Amino acid sequence: MEKLENRNNVRLTNQIEILNILRKSHSTITDIADKLDISFTAAKNIIEEMSHAKLVSITEDKQQVNKRGRAPAIVKLNTENGIVCGIDMSGWDIKVFLCSLDCKILCKKEIPSVMFIEPEHLDQIKEIINDLLQQKAVKGKKLLSICISTPGLINEKTLKYEDVYRVPKYKEMDPIEYFKKAFNVKVEMYNDVRLSALAELKFGAFPSKPFNGIFMHIGTACGYALIINGKIYKGSNGFAGELATYNNIDVYSKTWAGRIYGIYDILRSEQKDLPFYTPDGDEKTIFNNLMKRYKEKDPLLLCKIEESIKMNAVTIIGLLASLDIEYLVIEGPILSFGKEYIETLTKYIHEYSTAKIRAKIIPSSLEEKTSIIGTAYQAVTSYYLDALKKLTIKRINKENFKINKVFYEI
Q: How far apart are CA 284 and CA 368, in angstroms?
């Protein structure tokens, strides 16, 4: 039984990796075999099984003929099985989109300037999804799954909010059950920073080989995800990476306690010159005002930005040194301050650290799209895992077969 389980896990791993390869571009069986470090015959058998299940398609590239007069077999994703939906509640605007199984966005719509996520926003999102399903690009295609990117802590056992500042009525809201009932499809919900880290792992600045690193979002709110051996670390309770808030301390003194200094913290120190957050404030407008002053090289603002960089350098040194991290990828609105932000941060990290910092500190290559890309990727992955489960049940003829939960972890 154990040997069968191991064989199934190896096959599932290869199937998932094949799908990951094809999500980026079509490929040949030979190239896939090389990338997976398996024999051509093994790759061919796996791909043919997936082709029979209509997960991929195999065609001959007659324009490329080898010395034996054979045309190589080109493997592509079969994107005709349906579409998936992504709901990104991570930023200033709620973004709702439908995408194909190769993660291409086919249509989208936004709910602008949402500071606090309320129950009525779920109703609005449902209406938007119904409207998008009628768009020409997707009409008639089956909705296969939904993935939600959200701020806050999500209990991985109950799949409900544990705590989230931007969802005041989080104890009353259950987005997963709401959209399951509305559309009768599988619905998943993950922390926004983790989904952004996932996007950077699959399509961004992180290397393809296993490594140890940190993905850090710095915006009006901040968060980071720890990557251990190429996998996103969850922590003992599933909440690793969410930064705590601090009460009753002077956030402008040396008692910063290791927190990441975000854009609102820059604004908070300038209340006389620029309105800070109010319950009905528009974050986007406030940020745009900040950027206007930055482009005008306002001396007070430039001074505050440099102060924030120094604070972050001290915090990051502690993380990099204690964890011996290889890569730090930084993402978020903070990058709107340009390459100078990363350059200055790197300078202070090396200047303040008594030990040699080996980590490469690089900006996200996905700009402001990390959460959307991660959400789309996970929505597609959710569909494929269920499809592969059915494929495995058919192959081994065991209805009680369950995919190891490690495959479902983002």
A: 14
Q: pLDDT digit string (tens) for 111-161?
A: 998 889 999 999 999 999 999 999 999 999 999 999 999 998 888 888 889
| Chain center to CA of 268 | 29
Strand partners, 110: 95
Q: At what angle do helices 2-24 and 40-52 cross, to 10 degrees?
A: 80
The beta-carbon contacts of 255-259 under 8 Å, at least 24 apart in sequence, are 256/311, 256/314, 256/315, 258/315, 258/318, 259/222, 259/315
Q: Do 29 and 40 form a contact (C-beta atoms < 8 A)?
A: yes
Structure tokens at 368: 């402001």
Structure tokens belonging to residue 319: 């993380």
What is the chain's alpha carbon radius of gyration, rounded to the nearest angstrom?
23
Query: Where does residue 76 fall: left (phi above 0), alpha (psi -120 to 50 degrees), or beta otherwise?
Result: beta
Instruction: Name the one residue in this structure whose structure tokens are 């080898």.
Output: 66
Spell out where 176-289 has E strands.
186-191, 213-218, 222-228, 231-232
CA–CA gap between residue 318 and residue 250 (Å, rounded):
20
Amino acid (1-letter code) at residue 352: Y
> How is residue 281 written in tokens?
């404030």
Structure token pair of residue 174: 């259950």
Q: What is the DSSP letter of 335?
A: G
Name the residue among 194, 228, 242, 222 with its Cα closest to residue 371: 194
* DSSP codes joined into one string, 275-324: ----TT--HHHHHHHHHHHHHTT-HHHHHHHHHHHHHHHHHHHHHHHHHT
> Which two tokens mark 364?
């996200």
CA 100, chain centre distance (Å): 17
pLDDT for res 276: 45
- From start to end of 43-175, where are the E strands? 56-60, 73-77, 83-88, 94-99, 105-111, 143-150, 153-154, 161-163
pTM: 0.89
CB-based contact 101:84 (threshold 8 Å): yes
Strand partners of residue 145: 84, 186
CA distance 151 to 117: 10
- Give the per-residue pLDDT at 135: 95
In degrees, rounded to 5, the angle at the alpha carbon of residue 153 between the alpha carbons of residues 12 and 326 is 60
Largest pairwise CA distance in the chain: 77
Question: Residue 18: phi, psi to the nearest 5?
Answer: -60, -45
